[in-house]
Specification:
37% helix, 3-stranded antiparallel β-sheet, single chain, 10% strand, alpha+beta
Length: 177
Amino acid sequence: MARGSKDGKDRGRGAGNLPNREAFERMNFLLQSAQFYATLPATNAAAAAVTTEATAKGKESDESTTLDNDSNGSSSSGALPPRTSTTMMPLARFYAKEMRLVSHKSVLRMSPHVKRSICKVCLTPLLPGISSMTRVKGQKRGRRVITTCNYCQSQTRLFVNDDHVLFVDRPEHGTIS
């Protein structure tokens, strides 16, 4: 039996030894779950009821417009609610919030790539074309990528510099890849 190994397997130093591995694995699972549920449509009535209830609060004006359309006969009775209410987005936000809580409680830093993939205001996973809109603007002061969350309308602006490499992407950083 190797020294320091409880299960009899010899685990060398270096690659594979990561403090708080379980917390990183949990954060990875929560990120993948949040992104998955952000793209998944609600398939059962209970999930649809939960998501429509969350979006129906304070939107009486939308109901009055649908009633007007029904009186004109131009609207179909089986029309689906807007895309925001037919997805599992509340569950995706919950998983993103849990991921952030795990990182805060275990005092771990999330990768900048992960931070940029989640809205800082409403914790929605930012997926282009599904939950966010991404634009490239600018010529004079430099190009910048503007990501707008479709749910809270907050914007994140990142300058595009071809020479810039994030610290975690540099080879001398030594993260596990």
